[in-house]
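Put briefly, the fold is written as integer tokens. The lines below illustrate.
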Amino acid sequence: MELSTQIRTFLLIVTTGIVLGILFDTYRVLRRRFRPPWLVTSLTDLLYCLLASAIAFTALLAGNWGELRFYVYIALLVGIIAYYRLVSQYVMKFIMALLLLITKLCHLTKLAVAFTIIKPVVFVTRTALWPFRFIGRKYSAWYKRRRPPPPEEIPPL
């Protein structure tokens, strides 16, 4: 294998390590935010491991046709360690801010839907049903005045 291919593969695997670090930080932020039960945590841990393996394998296939050499492990560790030492805290803050922004946008969307669709429909429905409710109240009051008194207790046989 040529030196240029090895350098290209090394840089690709370092980049893969950085991507895996970003993915893991995203997972950590989401898990801290939603605090899932232990079973869901175990399943998502397994899902992360499978996804990380698939990403690493795909990068390895793209870089050097799947040849697994010692420098590949070194490159992956260099990428992960460089990511965690240099930018992990900033990426986590960015992900938390992005999650907060998404939460606020969802809340605003919910309010917009409530005030543009749900509130007018409720108003129109109540307005349309108001005469029936009025008639129902009058009928109920009339029935309460006209109904026969409750029967006396029937003695047991």
